[in-house]
Amino acid sequence: MTAQSRFLDARGLRFHYRDWGGEGRAIVLLHGLASNARIWDFVAPLLANSRRVVALDQRGHGLTGKTDAGYDFASISDDLAAVLGALPLERPLLVGHSWGANVALQFAAERPDAVAALVLVDGGFLEISAWPEMTWERTVQLMSPPPLAGMKLDVFLKGARSWPGLADLWSDDVQEIVLANFKIDGDGAIHPYLSRDNHLKILRALWEQKPSQLWSRLRCPALLVPASGRQGEPARDAWLEHKRKGIALAQEAAPSLRVEWMEDTIHDVPLQRPRELADAIERFAAGLT
Q1: 13-21 vs 4-10, strand pairing mode
Q2: How far is CA 7 from the centre of its chain?
Q3: Tell me, what's the pLDDT at 174?
Q4: Torsion sign (Cα): 176, 181, 182, 183
Q5: Which of 101, 216, 253, 259 could form a disulfide with 123 if both were Cys (CB 3.0 to 4.6 A apart)?
Q6: Is residue 217 within 8 Å of residue 112, measured between CB atoms?
Q7: Which CATH number fits domain 4-143+210-286: 3.40.50.1820, 3.30.70.1050, 3.60.120.10, 2.170.130.30?
Q8: Which secondary-structure segment (H or E) carries 245?
């Protein structure tokens, strides 16, 4: 099934979304930080056989409008509410990846009547500021975006094809999804749609967010789909331990929470395991009333 690229106006912005059509309860797909709606291109067609499926470019990302403000969770949640109302999509299943999972969790905690259920893909459970070593300054140091603006396209692609994890998956389709994060100028240089300043505003919001205080406010079914990564490397193993602790806190606050691990999987689950992820979403959605 082919997606249609569509736009709508809300909250003074032009929002872009990809629409696979379909019928039944809608599934709304939210991408991660510095990503775009096209990261769902492998998963969405598998879901659209039995559901209405839409993937949104969030504020500052992809083909959606750019602003200098509005990257806090309250504003991003208001964006999502406006888009759902404009389409309209009533009580969808929200599926978020990475930062998109944090957006979905915040949205559902604050608007319990607006969401049927949540699927959070490798995100929504880490509380960065709770880690003793992760001061804000350290977070900026480790998680700032690379300086890509103005880089020549051929130089970027040469490096991107060897990115850890993605190197084994690289294809023309993956390349198209990655390049949807950038505007390419007439000189063949790339410019991220999400500026560095706006990236850091979202990172600050993530650092300040307290997922541990949101889980107890959740009133809808939820499924976590964390990725285990490739174990055996100290840095990755430490990151995995943080994940396990965050998930344990989530399960303590929301005992009905389901968890389905993607073993030996990179963070970009929608690219590496689209069939497995779609199947997990379908199994979960089948049990909703």
Answers
A1: antiparallel
A2: 20
A3: 97
A4: positive
A5: 101
A6: yes
A7: 3.40.50.1820
A8: helix 234-253
CA nearest 94: which of 4, 222, 208? Answer: 222
Per-residue model confidence (pLDDT) at position 233:
59
The Cα-based distances of 211 to 29, 107, 130, 155 in angstroms read: 20, 12, 10, 38
Tokens 């880690």 appear where? 131
pTM of the model: 0.96
Q: From CA 111, how far away is CA 76, in angstroms rounded?
A: 13
* Amino acid 235: pLDDT: 65
Residue 20 to residue 29: CA distance in whole angstroms: 11
d(CA 140, CA 259): 30
Residue 279, both tokens: 């199947």
* Cα separation values, 164 from 161, 167, 229, Å: 9, 6, 11
What integer pLDDT is reported at residue 92 of this predicted model? 97
Distances (CA, A) of 50 to 44, 64, 240: 11, 27, 34
Residue with tokens 């505003």: 201
Cα distance between residue 72 and residue 202, in whole Å: 6
Residue 237 CB: number of other CB atoms within 10 A? 12
* Segments of the chain with pLDDT less than 70: 230-235, 289
Cis peptide bond prior to 270, omega within 30° of 0: no
